[in-house]
Specification:
Its EC number is 3.5.1.28. It catalyses: Hydrolyzes the link between N-acetylmuramoyl residues and L-amino acid residues in certain cell-wall glycopeptides. Keywords: Cell wall biogenesis/degradation, Hydrolase. The protein is of the alpha/beta class and about 240 residues long. It has 2 domains: about 150 residues, Peptidoglycan recognition protein-like (Lysozyme-like), CATH 3.40.80; about 60 residues. It contains 8 helices and 8 strands; from the N terminus they run E-E-E-H-E-E-E-H-E-H-E-H-H-H-H-H. The strands form 2 sheets. The protein has a 6-stranded mixed beta sheet. A two-stranded antiparallel ribbon has the order 2-6. Helix 6 packs parallel to helix 8. The radius of gyration is 18 Å and the shape is globular. It starts with a strand and ends in a 6-residue tail after the last helix.
C-alpha cells in the first residue's frame, strides 16, 4: 500500500558526500509544542536544519528533502567510523514535545505511520535494523532524542530496529566487568569510543535511553551489559574471544 505523503520542500539540503546512497535512518523528535512551528523551522534557510520527513501526531507524513539529498539533521555525530552521518542517513522527525516532565508517550497513529514509512525506506535503500538509530545514539551527551518514551521494542518486533529484553539474571554484579562488556558491545554496534570520563558518562546515558529507559540514571549494571551484548550479537554475530 502506497503512503500518503504531503510534500513541503525545504531549501536546507545538499549533495551527499562520499556516499552513493543512504544506509542509515536516524530518528528524532522535534521538541516543539506545535507541528507548524517545527515545519517552519525545518524549512527556514536561516535555521540551517532540515530532515527528510516529519511525522505528525495524527500520522500525517510530510516530505521536506528528497531522499537522494543530504538533509541537515544529525549535526556533529558519529556512527561506525562515520563522522558525516548526514551523508549516510535518512532523517525522520517525530512531532513530539520531547522527554519533558509530563510529556506523553509517542502517539499511536504516529508510530503506525513511522513503521510504514521506515519499512518502505529500509526496503528501498537496503537499510538493516542495526542501522536504524536515534539522534542520541549518534550524538551522546549532545542529544537525547527520541528519548526514553520512544518504543524501540515495538519497532524491533516488526524487524525495523534492534532490541533486547535480557534482564541480566545470573550475571555477576561486577561493576568493572559490566562496564567493560558494555563498552565492548557499544563499540561493536557503532557508538563512538569515549575518550574520557565525561564522554563515557554521556555514552552510558545514551545506552540507557535506548536500551534500558526504565533504569535511566542508575549505575550501568548487569541488565544493560546483557542487553548490549545480545543486541551486538543480533547485529554482528557472536563476539570474538576476549
Amino acid at each position: 500500500m502506497s503512503l500518503a505523503i504531503a510534500h513541503l520542500p525545504s531549501p536546507n539540503h545538499g549533495p551527499r558526500r562520499g556516499a552513493a546512497a543512504p544506509d542509515m535512518a536516524v530518528l528524532h523528535h522535534t521538541a516543539m509544542e506545535r507541528l507548524e512551528d517545527a515545519l517552519a523551522r525545518l524549512r527556514d534557510p536561516a535555521a540551517e536544519v532540515s530532515a527528510h520527513y516529519v511525522i505528525a501526531r495524527d500520522g500525517r507524513i510530510f516530505a521536506l528533502v528528497p531522499e537522494e539529498r543530504r538533509a541537515w539533521h544529525a549535526g556533529v555525530s558519529f556512527w561506525a567510523g562515520e563522522r558525516d552521518v548526514n551523508s549516510r542517513s535518512i532523517g525522520i522527525e517525530l512531532d513530539h514535545p520531547g522527554p519533558l516532565a509530563g510529556a506523553p508517550p509517542y502517539f499511536a497513529p504516529q508510530m503506525l505511520a513511522l513503521e510504514r514509512l521506515l519499512a518502505d525506506i529500509m526496503a528501498r535503500w537496503g537499510i538493516v535494523p542495526s542501522r536504524v538509530v536515534g539522534h542520541s545514539d549518534v550524538a551522546p551527551g549532545r542529544k537525547s532524542d527520541p528519548g526514553p518514551k520512544f518504543d524501540w521494542r515495538r519497532l524491533a518486533l516488526r524487524g525495523l530496529a534492534l532490541w533486547s529484553d535480557a534482564d541480566g539474571a545470573g550475571r555477576r554484579d561486577d561493576p568493572e566487568a559490566n562496564r567493560a562488556a558494555i563498552l565492548r558491545a557499544a563499540a561493536r554496534l557503532g557508538y563512538a569510543p569515549p575518550a574520557d570520563a565525561a564522554q563515557e558518562a554521556a555514552l552510558m546515558r545514551a545506552l540507557q535511553l535506548r536500551f534500558a529507559p526504565h533504569a535511566l540514571g542508575a549505575p550501568p549494571g548487569p541488565l544493560l551489559a546483557a542487553r548490549l551484548e545480545e543486541v551486538a550479537e543480533q547485529a554482528q554475530g557472536p563476539a570474538p574471544p576476549a
